[in-house]
Design a protein that fits this description.
- By secondary structure, the protein is an alpha+beta fold.
- The chain has two domains: 2-140; 144-296, no CATH class.
- It is built from 17 helices and nine strands.
- The chain has helices at residues 2-10, 13-17, 22-35, 43-64, 68-81, 83-88, 91-105, 115-123, 142-160, 167-183, 189-198, 203-206, 229-237, 243-249, 300-306, 308-312, 322-348; strands at 200-201, 212-214, 220-224, 226-227, 250-252, 262-264, 267-269, 272-279, 291-296.
- Strands 1, 2, 3, 7, 8 and 9 form a six-stranded antiparallel beta sheet that branches. It has a three-stranded antiparallel beta sheet with strand order 4-6-5.
- β2 and β3 (220-224) form a beta hairpin.
Length: 360
């Protein structure tokens, strides 16, 4: 595509640094990296470019107190959009470990890394050296990651105390309580780590009423594929939507198992299906208990089911255990992130508009 080639050719590090908008800088740098194709054959040059980009973004986002944003996005692009480069060039893994250890930690202990960054690093192990050769992966404590996430749950509980009670806030509290019970049960810890790494807490595995999505920005959202009559009434009473609007978005009233909840689809397009979501964690623009819209880029479970033969031969989804399902889900998540990044960034490439990506 001509527009892509032109845009990449015009990317100038010095001019890019002169911009006053940190979010524009992040988008432009990541767009450049993902459409640049394979990284430069000169590893020293590649390391220097990546070092310069991430050092500058790190300085910018320290001022914003959102250091996790550039690093999580960077790992998305490098780990998924340029996955083939790491498969073909093993030495690149050592370069990446050096970059992270020297730039991100800057002499601090690995525990000082934000839990959202640690979660992303665990989700792209193929970018770093394997096993005992790795200087980075063994330093990240999975238990510390769980503790940090558990603290976020406790903060969300405290925030919900001040939110007026209705069926939606009760649903939020119930989900947090169920998740907290899982954290208190050590037998769930491996599955919790896998879920955090994927960014998806399956409702069946964790006994939830709805699937929980943990976004790249660290937010936690209950995915409302279906709404009860009481939840619909509370959304109308709270002036979140009008009754006519909600009725227009209900696709059918068929039962699904013992559920009589209505399936609600806000819309659908080239990027996927848009659903309602119930926010659980405190964020800059939304509070716990707020209803937001979420775009589902892919049906992760559907993709994972199709991967069962790849990992387990003639076995079927219904016959494999939970750990095997998690293996398929993790592979599915890794498989869809790169193409989704390319689709989204290609869509905004001509206008260079600001975009913060949250893949679920």
């Amino acid at each position: 595509m001509t527009s892509e080639t032109t845009y990449i050719a015009e990317f100038d590090l010095t001019k890019w640094k002169e911009s006053n908008n940190a979010f524009h800088k992040l988008e432009n740098a990541m767009t450049h990296l993902i459409f640049a194709g394979d990284l430069d054959e000169d590893l020293n040059k590649t390391s220097e470019v990546l070092q310069n980009i991430m050092q500058h973004l790190q300085d910018e986002y320290k001022k914003e107190e959102k250091l996790y944003l550039p690093w999580v996005r960077f790992f998305d692009v490098i780990g998924h959009g340029l996955q083939s480069a790491f498969e073909l060039e093993p030495n690149l893994k050592g370069t990446m470990e050096t970059l992270v250890l020297e730039l991100l930690t800057q002499g601090s202990t690995i525990k000082a890394i934000d839990w959202r960054i640690a979660k992303k690093i665990l989700g792209i192990p193929h970018v770093f050296l394997p096993g005992k050769k790795s200087r980075l992966l063994p330093l990240i404590s999975k238990e510390d990651l769980l503790k940090a996430f558990q603290q976020e749950i406790e903060t969300a509980f405290e925030d919900l105390v001040w939110v007026p009670s209705n069926s939606l806030t009760r649903t939020a509290k119930d989900a947090l309580k169920k998740l907290q019970e899982c954290f208190n049960d050590e037998s769930f810890h491996d599955r919790l780590i896998q879920a955090l790494t994927i960014g998806r807490f399956d409702k069946t595995i964790f006994g939830l009423s709805h699937t929980l999505i943990c976004g790249e920005d660290g937010g936690l959202v209950l995915l409302l594929n279906r709404l009860s009559k009481e939840q619909q009434e509370d959304m109308v009473k709270g002036s979140i939507v009008t009754k006519d609007y909600l009725q227009d978005k209900i696709k059918n009233n068929e039962k699904k198992g013992d559920s009589t909840n209505d399936r609600v689809v806000i819309g659908a397009g080239g990027f996927g299906t848009v659903r309602f979501g119930l926010n659980l964690f405190r964020e800059s623009k939304v509070r716990p208990g707020d209803i937001i819209c979420i775009k589902k880029t892919k049906d992760l479970t559907h993709v994972a089911k199709n991967l069962v033969p790849t990992f387990y031969g003639e076995a079927e989804w219904a016959n494999i255990d939970e750990s095997e399902k998690e293996t398929c889900l993790l592979a599915a998540a890794n498989g869809i992130t790169g193409p989704t990044l390319r689709i989204i960034l290609a869509a905004v490439l001509p206008t260079k508009s600001t975009l913060l990506i949250s893949l679920i």
